[in-house]
């Protein structure tokens, strides 16, 4: 099948970056331990997906489904594409998630590159076109994992800033993401439609944690990279001084919210609406993008009660939803229709796909 080639018209590339650490080893060990348990223990959890009612039925701007068949089309810019099936076993689910993360990117954005920010001692075997490893020294214990992620982003931006100073015409935009995400549409649109921001964050209607750190976009100009780096340095400072007890998880999101909301007269009520907006936070122009489109989570997550927007671009398989990510890729490989795959995701219940 022919793939949409509009991405080639743009001079820049978008790199999707994740922090891959020993957390994957922990997941792999957990999977291994479950394999060694008695058979009756394994039967306590479902080994297949069970579809339920899809949220958002009857709403004109939401995906409409009949089982796993889409009744209307999403706004994806990609034509149908036949892709190969991916096989995996329970022992290697963590690496399967990483490879499927890459698969989705290479379907939706074939001209992008993937850079994996990782612990130098991690033994990763990822041999894929347009995929590379970027080791960064740091503290990768589980208690320091989220702190290290922010530090790694800052270190990476510093190296990109230095590289840009040597070649000011080599403009590349960056998107930092978690690895448990499926990119289902071209994210280059962010930089085309919103030409003036330095960095972008995703928000949701959550009073305590309105900002999700799983998706951070940075404009690849020298000013964009510098301002994003300074903003993240401020987030890191607040993280260490105010939320160090939450360093294992959530501390980064609490620190993000504190830095943003500390701006005088910042209107936090805008987080209750799924409309993108911009604001200047300490000299950094921040574009706030709704999670409903750029960081949508399957049932039991943000946006589920109103269904899935037709223009969703990123699906975030948080926590135990990672099995659903694997199932979704296999389903897409066989269909291959993005809208039908999204119906599979929308109709799946959390307890049906726990690891």
Automatic annotation (TrEMBL):
InterPro entries: Nucleotide-diphossugar_trans. The keyword DNA repair does not apply. The keyword Signal applies. It comes from the Eukaryota. Keywords: Signal. Residues 1-26 form the signal peptide. PANTHER family: POLYPHOSPHATIDYLINOSITOL PHOSPHATASE. This is Nucleotide-diphospho-sugar transferase. It comes from Vicia faba. The lineage of its organism: Eukaryota, Viridiplantae, Streptophyta, Embryophyta, Tracheophyta.
